[in-house]
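go over this:
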Amino acid sequence: SGGLVAGTRAGFAYSTWPLMGDSFIPRGLYAGTPAWLDMFEDITTVQFNHRIFAYLLVILIGVFATLVYRSGAGGHARLAVVLLVLALAVQVVLGISTLLLHVPVPLAAAHQGGAMLLLTAMLFAGHVVRKQ
């Protein structure tokens, strides 16, 4: 989803957070014909989907971290989860900062790099937790 935001330059469309302009769900969402094409071409829909994906990741990683901690998993699993939550926090801060500061290139590049860090942390945490 981040590649679509960068490719369509959707990050420039709404530089507000948590609202997109004056509402959480912006006007004109999926208004194109055909509507499914908006997921790839309409900057409002692309940015909205990116935000929803980020919110979903925060929820899912939060649930995962809670379950791992409550399970009594060992030190390596707990460390992997801490690293995952840290990577998520960095990515969220980078994403919101990039948006609010009107997409400065170094910050946008750091946000894209943060996506790779977060993916790596997710894979690592999944691997370590599964082994235990």
Notes: The longest helix spans residues 43-70. The chain has one domain: 2-131. The mean pLDDT is 95.
